[in-house]
Design goal:
425 residues; alpha+beta; 3-stranded antiparallel beta sheet; 52% helix; Transl_elong_EFTs/EF1B; Transl_elong_EFTs/EF1B_dimer; Transl_elong_Ts_CS; mitochondrion
Length: 425
Amino acid sequence: MALCRNAKGPLSRMLTTRPGVSYGQRYSTAATATPIYQSADDKTAFRYAFGVLSRRFSSQTPPAAAVQMSLIKQLRERTSAPIKDVKASLVQCNWDIEAAQTDLRKRGKVLAMKKAGRVATEGLLALAQNEGKAAVIELNCETDFVARNEIFQYLALTLAKQALLVENASQLVSGVHPVGLESLEELKLNLEHPKISGDTTVQNAITEVAAMMGENVRLRRGFVMSAPSPGVLSTYLHTSPQPEHAMISKISYELEGLGYRRISFGLRHLMCMDVGLGRIVGLLSLEIEDGNSPLEDLQRVGSELAVHLVAAKPLFLTKEGVSSDALESEREILKSQAESTGKSQMAIEKMVEGRLRKYYEEVVLVEQKFVMNDTMNVKTLLSNLSKEVGSTVKIGNFFRMEVGEGIQREEALSADEPAAQAAGF
């Protein structure tokens, strides 16, 4: 108290004194005079009092704890950013939620660019389809936790729809065609999600989501398959199994055993509906010679074969389509295994040929056992369907894709590339 009283005299003189004006005149805020310190104690007291007043008027008192928690919750809901980052931005911006949101976006984009080199093996496949074609894209992230986030899923579906809308001359021809990622990333988007909205580019949207998630997010690849004419395009997107799927599957096969084949297929179709997001996708086109034939049976079998693709993992459509390198490699492996038995050369050759037939049944689509009825292979299934519709039916193209496949190999090749270049390769 004594210190404050000592400060009162010199402080008031500093605020009111002007040249040629006595202390008894009217109060003024024009602080233009130099304060007169009567002693060293007066000078010390002045500095203390001036410091207190400066801190009081230059800083803002932080809001109450309840208000702080409310602001943190609101900003977290808006951005989905980690709580520690949300709080740090609010503190930095004096608890101004709008300024903090802008600060988070700036911070996040810088962080997203730093994390762009990290391996991202998780993620989702997103499928979009219309009558003429289907598009599937793979959007990767680092953890399954982010893959389950609604913002990540919204972005994946949006990118698949965008890929479906991209017109490309090659896509007009029936078959499987890669999506040009560079051109796709430059396209404009109009996002309508509560947490990520407005006009932006595909690349900026990916960076924005990566900033929110705090992980490396990247658009890895995309493909489009066009429907044949005449014929059908069938797809199956494998998602995480739901509890009710086991019951539906059991009932459907019981109905099929009682002869209610179409009802059974209808139930299984409910289980195999394209929901847009999953981890494995199968796409397949069935071509028919007679364009006037009804397509209902083709659609039924096509849907079942799309499921078969996901389960059986074929590599080639026919025996003739097996590459010579793959066949020669497999033959050498089988020959080496047969020679270890110590049998004669003639017996070894027979063993190799027999095992090659088994190899074809494993990797060639039309030679594989049909997963929904293993008493016949896919070739027999197509033959029966051709008789049923009165016209030859064949598989035009097929395509299977799984999240993360080959990524570790890609990373290894990328790591070896500088060394290979240095070695002169």
